[in-house]
Design a protein that fits this description.
Elements (H helix, E strand, L loop, with lengths): L7 E6 L5 E6 L2 H16 L14 H8 L1 H23 L13
Helix pairs in contact: 1-3
Length: 101
């Protein structure tokens, strides 16, 4: 269902217990994140002309709006890709601190 194509993860040591992850994901993987986000949001939304949770993706995108959808996809993408990167690099999490580039 979802594309698990490889992603590039660069790990920089910042101290004894601190690592900086730089994650690059393909457009296909980000499209998968968008689909996951739309599915998650669509479960609880009622769009005029459709039963709750049954609106098509195009109608959901229009109902949600570009800015809100972009923010939701970004949040979901960061969380999802972070967890995949931690697993891929076999890192153990002590705490999470996000920094934007």
């Amino acid at each position: 269902m979802y594309n698990y194509s490889p992603m590039n993860v660069k790990v920089e040591n910042k101290g004894k217990t601190e690592r900086l992850l730089v994650i690059s994901a393909s457009a296909e993987r980000l499209a998968d994140v968008k689909q996951r986000t739309l599915k998650r949001l669509g479960k609880d939304l009622t769009v005029k002309g459709f039963r709750k949770g049954k609106a098509p993706k195009k109608a959901l995108e229009k109902h949600i709006g570009d800015n809100t959808l972009q923010a939701e996809v970004l949040e979901d993408g960061v969380n999802f890709l972070y967890l995949l990167a931690v697993n891929q690099e076999e890192l153990r999490r002590l705490r999470v601190a996000f920094r934007s580039a």
